[in-house]
Hints:
36 strands, 2 domains
Amino acid sequence: MFKHKKIIVFTVLLLTLILSVGAISAADDDSTSQIDNNDVQVTAESITNDDLVSSTQDNTVQSRPKSIKTDSDNTININKDNYQEQGWVREDDDNGKFAISYYGESSSNDVTFVFEDSIDDNLNSIIISDGNNITISASPDVTFHNVAFAISEASNTTLKNMKINIDDDYVYSLIGYSNIIYIMEDSTGTIIDNVTVDYYLPEGVDVEYPASVLDIRSDVEISNSEFIINTFTSTVEWDPISGSQYGTNDIMPIRAQNLNGNTYVNFINNNIYINATNESGGFPTLYAMTIGCPNSIIANNTIEIHGTGWLYAITSKGDYNQLINNHIYVTGTNYTGGIFIQDASYSLVDNNTIILEASAEKDEGAMTEPVTYGIVLENYAYKGATYHEGTGNVKNNTISNNNITCTANNMYAVEQFGGDNTSVVNNIMVSTGETAMGIGIIGANSVITGNDITVSGLYENGVT
């Protein structure tokens, strides 16, 4: 065991990197215990990495301005008796279920609807379309049971102060997707505030592939909300001809895609609890939160995951994303991961607390060791062997002021697999296992300074 603080600046940094085929294939792409995040706060001092890696980068931590809402107090209470009189249109399917839709252009905009009840046991979808400044809320005693929400061709829609409960009886036929909150790419300025979703999707339930609790396809701000998810891990689709399904699996709880070229996500002050102790197929995997869009802020969140297989807390795939002040706790068997920056540049990963646990003992005859990875940078263009500066799209990323604890058979607190101008600054890392690693980097022009690293291990070599 040792502690040290070193400053290492050089053109190409190669620290021992040990990878297994099984771990790479996964990496490529009813517990709700509370975590005390009182200490997780936005730092008073802005964090920049201008002086470290690039004069062109400004990673100042700041929130994006909120969407502008009108001051209209046009609030309408609706219930099972009057909703159609207030402009809501009912659409029935062939299974006894129905949706209600509100079309702002043909009814009224600038309106807040407060649901006094959940309308009907057979209601399965609430849709906002062609509207502006429409807010959906509910009385405190109302829970929407097996009801999904979709937002289409609407601007400045708000969902707030609501509870949604989804179980394995949910039918999604009218929306056509098995997503509980579905924000379509033709919408803009959506806000989700103080919404609780309790979601149960066990193995064997037939749903649209992939299923998501949050399917984000345009800009959105999500705050003060809670997502409790009981589900399973499953095999990732790696068939090159699988099209849009490539890199996905049965359930992707929170997924953002930049399908309209203007998508960003502000995901701030939320709680995510996932229990995925059942599994399906080989290399069963769960990506809790996948942010496939740039200019996003993921801050002040608590993410707690318990499960089996390959578990990833946050995967960021967009340039200029900020992942700051999050508290991440993941326990599992094969593989637990904290924050992954995949094929992206100008990312700021700052002031996160990451606690990861996997099995300490390797199973007899297993191809891979149980591993944890705290923070990882992945460059898809780099395939191994000698790294050449300028390869791919991973550059000018900063990992700073994080507190990372890894316990497993094998681990890296911080790892980079290809990339330029990475800064790893002022982090605290504790690695405990049979083959324990602090920092492993393959790349060019890396800066490592001011880190406090404690490693407790038995061997220098492993297979992962």
